[in-house]
Amino acid sequence: MTTYIAQRLIIFFPMLLVISFLVYSGLELSPGDAVSHMISPELASTITAEQLDAMREAYGLNQSFITRYWIWLTSMVQGDMGYSMAGGVAISEIMVKTVPATLELSMVALFFSTILGCSLGVISALKRGSGTDNSLTVAGMAGVSIPEFFFGLVAILLFAIELKWLPVGGRLMPHYETVWDRIPNIVLPSLVLALMMTAGAMRYARSSMLDVLAREFITTARSKGMPEWRVNILHGFRVALTPVVVLIGFRLPLLIGGSTIIEQVYQWPGIGSMFIRSVRASDYPLVMTISLMYVFVVLTASLIIDVLTALIDPRVRLGKE
Amino acid sequence: MTDKNNIALSVKNLKTFFYTNNRCNKAVNGVSFDVEKGKTLCIVGESGCGKSVTAATIMQLLPTLSRIEEGEIIFRKDDKTVNIEKLEKNGKEMRNIRGSDIAMIFQDPMTALNPVYTVGFQISENLKYHTNLNRKEIREKSISLLNDMGIPLPEKRVDEYPHSYSGGMRQRAMIAMAMACNPKILIADEPTTALDVTIQAQIFELMEKLKEENDTAIILITHDMGVVAELADNVAVMYMGNIVEAGTADDVLRRPTHPYTKALLESVPVLGRGKNQDINPIKGSTPDPYNRPVGCQFAPRCNWQTESCDVMPEITQINKTHQIRCHKYEQFFEKYDEKRNS
């Protein structure tokens, strides 16, 4: 296992390098640059080409693509993330502000969706064909197929505007003092995010569980005279868990990347909404930092999934011992 | 011979039906037999004739869409008798019988063991639920069971997962699991179908040994006539949910009287007769369970079919041990007497 993890870590960095280059090239290919986004529309008619070039030179945008990439890469390796072109703020500062917001939202959503998804899926599988199962199936299909933004907007309309139970959006207000003040703000976005994720996890857990319950070792377990809960949970769910863990593992990047759509709908000041703004502004340093972080988390998550599946299922042996 | 005190289990007119798509499959349709202590009853028949369902019914391990329609399953333990069919399917009483009084071995050892638990853990579950042993004793017992089954290095093997066991070893582990609580009855549902012939012989040797040492009654489900000849004390031949012929191994194998039994025996290739030997497969195939023949279930495939076969024949006792469900058994049975006399 140690060898396997070491192997994975070795390919980790080349992969980061390749992906960073691809993202940088992608930004280069997109029309316009940071400067063209800095100028307000009123000024666009009066500004001269020379002035634009001067601005480009000031930001170093007149240098060749490879040189710019090299400059970015060397400073990144030294731990200098640079400054946002759009706001002029240090990117490290932006990260310190946005990462906790995203973590807060995603962790709450991931936690509840995992527990709820697994248990509802198991209940659904055990009561296959019953009214409970059918209604959970319908709810699950709806949850999977209704787009998040629609769900989010309906929730705002209903709970925030009509019923006025919860705030429309945002994370912090100036008058908030304790953690408790912030709870109403997180309820709607995390609930909407969690419900979407619950639906997927539930469907997955259900089909995985049904598959396992039909296997012969379940009959063996029952033939030993063990109570039903032990047969279903210890022998059934334990085996059904593997694919569910993989699904949940692939959601780990959400913790850092955030759900761009939900953050946008609820004006949640997380990485997701920051990412959208930075791409719109062709803000190279910020886009690069966020996407690198995203890649990092995806790669780490897949490593975690591999290790977890090996722990759950002894048949999976990683690398050579 | 069939002394009442010797009977471990008797099944009387058992009917188990499956309900799918509003249709009813009479998988087991009035089966009766007795299992004696320390004896092996072989249930033979083609695929889909209800052998495995009979076994599952005794253990109440039936799938959700099936139920015991009629009949009795009487389990005799010491002086008490228990009507298994009356117990709640996964209720406490049924669970107390499962795994401790009646244990079961399954067809495919590759899939019958849970891949994520060690073999030791899976054996210990049985002991945990049916004995008062503490953890240390359970572990020692698990090791000694594996040792009895002829698994080398049991102290080490007990902590290994099923995937590091070979097929034969897994079936031994299954038997160790089944024998953990010294069951009165062991049901083996085609225990060697998935194994090769040498392993098959070893597994049967093991079962014979256990039977003699513990006085366990064995219900062996198989379609291998060679196995029947080797192991059976009593044989029941099943066809389409009915027992068509039953008796001692001698009765059924030496004087097969039902046309179906005869046909089964004739369709077995014999080693040593060369590749050009005549094998007489039974013509046709088993009828659709939803569209059964009216009378004798075997009639459409039978060479001796007559009009009288449109009525389901009753079970007739030929002699003390040999019984049959056929209208015309007399003419077949007389032939044996003629042969013996000549």
Describe the structure.
- The complex is a heterodimer of chains A (321) and B (342).
- Chain A is mainly α and 321 residues long.
- Chain A has helices at residues 2-29, 34-38, 41-44, 49-59, 65-77, 91-126, 131-145, 148-162, 179-213, 216-223, 228-249, 253-257, 260-265, 271-280, 284-312.
- Chain A has 15 helices and no strands.
- In chain A, helix 1 (2-29) runs antiparallel to helix 15.
- With 342 residues, chain B is an alpha/beta fold.
- The mean pLDDT of chain B is 85.
- Chain B has helices at residues 51-58, 92-97, 109-112, 119-130, 135-148, 154-157, 167-179, 197-214, 225-231, 249-254, 259-266, 329-341, and strands at residues 7-20, 23-36, 40-44, 66-77, 80-83, 102-105, 185-189, 217-222, 234-239, 242-248, 316-317, 323-324.
- Chains A and B meet through helix 10 and helix 11 of A and helix 2 and helix 4 of B.
Largest β-sheet summary of chain B? 8 strands, mixed
Shape of chain A: globular
Quickly give the structural class of chain A. mainly alpha
Average pLDDT figure of chain B: 85
Low-confidence stretches of chain B: none
Shape of chain B: globular
- Strand tally of chain A: 0
Could you describe the largest sheet of chain A, including whether it forms a barrel?
none
Number of helices of chain B: 12
Note the run of SSEs of chain B as H and E.
Answer: EEEHEEHEHHHHHEHEHEEHHEEH
CA-CA gap between termini of chain A: 7 Å
The N- and C-terminal alpha carbons of chain B lie at a distance of: 30 Å
Mean pLDDT of chain A: 82
Q: What is the beta-strand fraction of chain A?
A: under 5%
Question: Based on DSSP secondary structure assignment, what is the total number of beta strands of chain B?
Answer: 12
Radius of gyration of chain B: 21 Å
Q: State the assembly state of the protein chains.
A: heterodimer
- Rounded radius of gyration of chain A (Å): 24 Å
